[in-house]
Amino acid sequence: MLERAKLRGLELERKPTDQIVVTGLYQLTSLGDTFQTWQGLLEGKSRIRAFNANSPRTNIAAPVEFNPNDYFGKKEQNPMAIITAMAIVGARGAGEMAQVLGEDKCLLPTVNKKRVGMCIASGIGPTHNLIDISNTIHGQTEEDRRDNKSFVWETDNEAMRKGSRRVSPFSGLRSFPEQPNAQAALALGASGWPINSAEACATGLSAIAEGARLIRDGYADIVFAGGVEEVLREHGEVGIASFAPMKALSTRNEEPEKASRPFDKDRDGFVLASGIGLVVLESEDFARKRSAKILARVLGFDKSIDGYHVTEADPDRIADTIFQALYDQKTKSFYPVDAIFAHATSTPIGDSVEIKALRKVFAEDLPNIPIAAIKSNLGHLVGAAGAVNAIAAILAINEGKIPHIRNLENPDEEFADLCLVRNQPLEKEINAGLALAYGFGGHNAAVLFGKYKG
Hints:
Elements: H1 2-7, E1 20-28, H2 34-42, E2 49-50, E3 60-61, H3 74-77, H4 82-98, E4 116-121, H5 128-137, H6 142-146, H7 157-165, H8 171-175, H9 179-188, H10 203-216, E5 222-229, H11 236-243, E6 275-283, H12 284-289, E7 296-305, H13 315-326, E8 327-328, E9 333-334, E10 339-341, H14 348-362, E11 371-372, H15 375-378, H16 385-399, E12 401-402, E13 426-427, E14 432-439, E15 443-450
Parallel strand pairs: 4-5, 10-11, 10-14
Antiparallel strand pairs: 1-6, 1-7, 2-3, 5-6, 7-15, 8-9, 12-13, 14-15
Helix pairs in contact: 4-9, 10-16, 13-14
């Protein structure tokens, strides 16, 4: 049996390691691609804008510019939801930076594809495709959809049977939540351990934590990890209507670019956004053997679920998660933190709970640690938010710059003693940056990234 396994090229022995590094990354937000987004953050830009969702409360959002026709032929797109196409483009972008892909945009022959894990997930997924299926059954045609025409909602049995025959055989694939991860793996030629866990707004950062765990425990040499979300391009009114009745979204419709204002006294909710955030993680040994450029270390990570409340987070459980992420098992001590990339959604309760958790961890040291909040520029990318926050931490470590918080005109008195980065980027050597994310249902994730010093 051993010989048969070896003939299949299987590496049966796990090789645990605590040396995990980042070698590639890719993001796409309303500000643009990886470095357009980073530059936009440093310049204090925002592309949050008016977005007609026919909502009585909220008609603003931060949509991403993404055209699948720029990357795929019509036939290639048949089984893809937009979010799946975005996941493939993001995985290729991160893989190209990590230099693990060949000219065919697939994994290099020198990379064992069975040791490449895939942890790309979405908080909401391609659910709008189910709306399309329902509309087709009830009489809408592809031409109606393409031309944005209204249609008569058929309820007659024969008319619905006729509509059902028009449902594309690819409709199911476009709707299934695992497809962004699965088709990204197919596009790259990866066949290692997959994880596709929807954890609300913690999804992207949680996926990075899971990817780090796969490498730490010896299940992978390389992992593509992060989040992708697109809830605005098609049926955007449904995305906004999903959150607006909870009073979670900002209603500052007359001033879209001022709507997202974390830690500000006048904050009134988050702004829904779309985008991608993906990183390539590797064991340090594997990265060094192939002479990869290493962007950062993963010093620690943890995730948890509160079991506390369906929408409100538990500051004690968040604090526990951060403590675990900062604890160095080797030295039995805690890593120092030079910057915090807060989840900071701009909701009155959310920002307050997050700071309460941070005070439980850092106590009197918290006012000395700079805090960034990039949702002030980008809005809330839901399942991709935590991954984009992680990328900001990695780039800040490399450039020694922390983006300032936009719209922080009148900080809430509760946060008056804190080092909230305001007015301009803060230039500072960052040896360790903490990225945080939380989501409905009590999902929490924390990842500590460190400067790579060889």
